[in-house]
## 1
Amino acid sequence: MKKVQLTETVLRDAQQSLMATRLPYADYADILADMDKAGYYSIECWGGATFDSCLRYLNEDPWERLRNLRKNLPNTRLQMLLRGQNLLGYKHYHDDVVEKFIELSIKNGIDVIRIFDALNDFRNIATALDSVNKYRNQRTVASGCISYTQSPVHTVEKYIEMCKELKSMGFDTICLKDMAGTMSPYEAEHLIKGIKDAIGDMTLILHTHCTTGMAYMTLTKAIESGIDVIDCATSCFSGGTSQPATESMYYALKQYGIETGLDEDIINKVNDFFKPVKQKYIDNGQINPKSLATDAQALVYKVPGGMLSNMIANLTDMHAMDKFDEALAEIPKVRADMGYPPLVTPLSQMVGNQAVTNVLIGERYKNISKEIKNYIKGEYGIAPAPIDPALMEKVLGADGSPVDCREEDQKRTGEEFVAAREALGDLCRSEEDIMSYICYPDQTLKFLKDRKAQEENEAVYTIEAM
Ligand code: CO
């Protein structure tokens, strides 16, 4: 019987998309024992924005959350999303930092590490893969992930080449990550058939979002074309900017005679559990009804919905909404000048801001942001297509040439670890504390100070109670 498995995203991408990753562990601890029996391919539960959000907003230790997930989901693959050399942040880290992060992630309970680079420059995910291979156990899965976008250089042939490269690098599975939800059913069909022909029986995964309204159609075509795993969210946390619904896909697949391995009663029970959780965040305003709706604008303008709303907010702040159409038309031009980067964080913000600047000043690239300069210098990696030569010259000078980001990244100086130990002093209890500090110094320092203060209070309270 044909088989398609489902990854459940409610604990990571679904709550990240619908409520800015503010779901505390305590809100779902009581359903984990059931989720462990649901039969998911994996549960995506860590990485992405969860790490930052734990420290910044939820006063939770992200590593402790992971250990608790591991303890309560002993039979299910735990999955995380990793931004390659950026780990969970926005800058490139040295290789020794990347290696230590992955060692600790596996040690604390992660099984599936989905690794991507915003530019699909696979040199930026190679160290992460090597590290997974160094510390892997029998359950570990290294998933090579492609950031999906549309442009004149992003052809089916190019994606097939990328998949062949991921396979030859030694990844266990390949994931197509359609972060903006712009992959159409037609594109899914051609892409997945072509990729499956090229990579044979290697597991292929599709990650998409309902944002533009196409995801269910796209998944249907993907299933007909041979996809192995799809990402879904329990139905009350599905739709809008989140993933398609787990139970709906289960029922549809069942009628096709496709086995999912899911337990129908349990996936319904999981959804019943999350209904009041969702209602709580609708009532307190953390789930914005806008994120639950379909917004097809990304298909018309070829820019993700989040980027449009950012631009509207910026132009409104500057009392320049009359420039909206002009700025919108400038976005694809800036993106073309930059060699068609996928419009994913942080590139979506960088391209959007530069487009607005170009229009407001009335002269293109009179002011160039620091981030765009660094991009053009090569610090993010190699652009999918050549960068406009005139823009290159403007940033690098007449005889300047871009840097190779690997030169800096491959340094293993250990300096970050030393600096973190010094900064944390007696607040530091573990390698995990050090890694949290390297990733998010200010948030971690505050979190660890609070932890210490809380323990001292508790100690005083215990003595007084005796
Ligand atoms: Co996503």
## 2
Amino acid sequence: MDKKAFYDLSYGVYLCSSWDKGRPVGCVANSAVQITSDPATVAVSLNHDNYTNQCVKDTGYFAVAILGEDADPLLIGKFGFYSSKDKDKFADVPYAVRGKLPVVDGCLSWISCKVVSSMETSTHTVFLGEVIDAGVLNKGTPMTYAYYHKELKGRTSPKAPTYQQEETDGKYVCKICGYVYAGETPFGSLPADWVCPVCGAPKSQFEKR
Ligand code: FE
């Protein structure tokens, strides 16, 4: 099986959010799609290991925030490579409650949904949500997953449905997000306050593979 075929599917970069007993939670999702238009429904796929998955099950609600190409990469790092279980991802991120759900101000648009059905796979839950509200916050070009990889050199969380292992021998790899350092400056010569461009982790979180 040539898994490169999957690269020809189109994905976006979304933040899927919900509530954990009144606390906003969320994670990056790249598999979200509108399924029907009347009534409008949206499906999103979340890994069982994502804390947000359980919160969507508990509350029965989720929002999908669509990120633009100019979205802050650290926003993706924060929501994509940490867990809402032990980190308040919304702590220093501007957001508002829109359509009953927490939505970051830095997205292009958002769609909030009430779960009407779900399906379990071996690793992910596919939630089907009926849209209860939606809005456009900013103008811009929606970020595709391909853009994230090619232009931002973005990494993929092992929890993502699109994750594939890559060669890392002899390279410095971020233990949080898997970012592989490939800059011209030797890793040891980078300034002490240098941080991972994807998730914001300090140098100490990198290890040589
Ligand atoms: Fe990182």
## 3
Amino acid sequence: MTDVVHEPRALREACDQLRASDARVGLVPTMGALHDGHLSLVAATREAGATRVVVSVFVNPTQFGEGEDFDKYPRTLEQDVELCRERGVDLVYAPPVDGMYPEGFETHVEVERTTARFEGAHRPTHFRGVTTVVTKLFNAVGPCVAAFGRKDYQQWRVLWRMARDLDMPVEVLGCPIVREPDGLAMSSRNRYLDAGERQRATAIVQGLRAADAAYRDGEREVARLEALARAPVQADFDRIDYIAVVGAESLEPCTGTAGDDVVVLCAAHLGQTRLIDNARLGRDRL
Ligand code: AMP
């Protein structure tokens, strides 16, 4: 049975009860329009020891910037609950916006260094919205293991940092990217793509594969790896926000020679749609 709750107090009570009967609670925060990428996170919490799983579905207004896609973001709660039910999820938490941000709300959580570049530079208010809402989710759920996708690689690092810095009683997992058969990273935003854009969208994974293949062959020159990742995206996308080789833990941009644990981060625009993707070179399956 999948229960749907809408209020933080109801969620906390339900989770406290589960823990009182020795359950280990897993949490999968999402904005809904669920796909196999989200559902892989449900499985990941179980692999990490969760015996009961909560999925939150909340299109969080504070992580969208001015002019971004908050209004048109897909909202498919009924289908999402059905998918959760099929996967044996115990609770779906779907709070209303004014429940999450009641009148007079004025408190935020900010992570500094890890948010400074890349997504943080291109979407200046984004991470503050994410870290604040995820803090609220962690508080409403209580001690748990929470799964995030490495699809949003920087977000995972930011939330891992936040939980650690603020002594949150949450184990933060970073889980592999789930891809379509042609390699495109699954994303709720892929629904925005028309047929032509959908074809061109694979340019990102083509670039990542080219950089990954070169890295596996011994290429370590950062400029060369970035050029390989960039070429197909430059050809098929309308605008690139960034393509950069960075340290997998520090997220500091690499210069000169790439080390042995690096990630290529990419964000680019195709028509009205902004897509992100990444690969840990020599390690990820692409
Ligand atoms: P979203 O609903 O887009 O906010 O994503 C909710 C969670 O699912 C985040 O932790 C994402 O990183 C993760 N996620 C989204 N797409 C994928 C994917 N293709 N593979 C793995 N995780 C994903």
